[in-house]
Design goal:
Blueprint: H1 28-36, H2 45-58, H3 63-68, H4 70-76, H5 82-86, H6 90-96, H7 106-126, H8 129-134, E1 142-143, H9 157-168, H10 176-185, E2 189-190, H11 197-201
Parallel strand pairs: 1-2
Helix pairs in contact: 2-7, 2-10, 9-10
Amino acid sequence: MNTTIQVPRMSHPAPSDIPRCPWCGTDPLYVRYHDEEWGRRVHDDRQLFEMLTLEGAQAGLSWITVLRKREGYREAFHGFDPQRVAVMTEEEQQHLLTHPGIVRNRLKVASTITNARAFLDLQREHGSFAAWYWSFTGGEPIRNVRRTMRDLPASTPLAEQISKEMKRRGFRFVGPTIIYAFMQATGMVNDHLTTCFRYSEEG
């Protein structure tokens, strides 16, 4: 049986009630993701592997496209259990290329298995992927001051540093832009605009 990560449902204001980061628009799925997940600190390894996989799948696509395929990814990749993903066979990978619930890109599918193996290597070396990942900021998030969408960078020197180290360790689809998006999504940086109700929530 596949394990599904349960993201707690939180009550949040309707799209028109208070200001949000404009990138989430009014799509209910996107709004919920913005309100309940994006920018919240993630220290659970399976959730980190999930976000790393989804961010890599986004390359060349819109984030809402990937969000809509999220359940398909959970089904295809064993609830984002890196131990189970790491041992997926070539035959299983070929089968995934026919799975309608994921991005059927051969390189992206293969990179998920490769990344699971590199992920497990980091777990063995540091006790958890989270311990290694959060060490780059001393375990604390970076609180930025972004007033408009124009203030949001595509990458930062820290993202480039993490990207370079992950590539050295065998990860794929972890360029600086993907890694910065990963940092934003998992709360390593608070990039909610200062006008967004979530900005103050994340400290």
